[in-house]
């Protein structure tokens, strides 16, 4: 079998491997869908236009009420290690004090530094 996998689009590492439909880079931990030419077509932006990527840290820019509960995610809540997914709620994350949840990118701002 002489299947060769493409290099990582983030760090150009040749050591990519495949897990189900994903290609994964062991050096920078970047994941992408096998067969997709680039991730640029599916860029996700925060509330001010910064491009988000897996593993970023973001802060919530407005109070968010949780459906079915009386809980609220307060403005300024810092969420670490986000994961981008397809769909209306395009961020999967763990919010401190709340747990796993899906957020919309329009309600977060990327933290730099």
TrEMBL record:
InterPro entries: YjdM, YjdM_C, YjdM_N. Belongs to the YjdM family. This is Alkylphosphonate utilization protein. Residues 44-111 form the Protein YjdM C-terminal domain. Residues 4-32 form the Protein YjdM N-terminal domain. It comes from Ruegeria haliotis. It holds the Pfam family Zn_Ribbon_YjdM. NCBIfam families: phnA (TIGR00686).
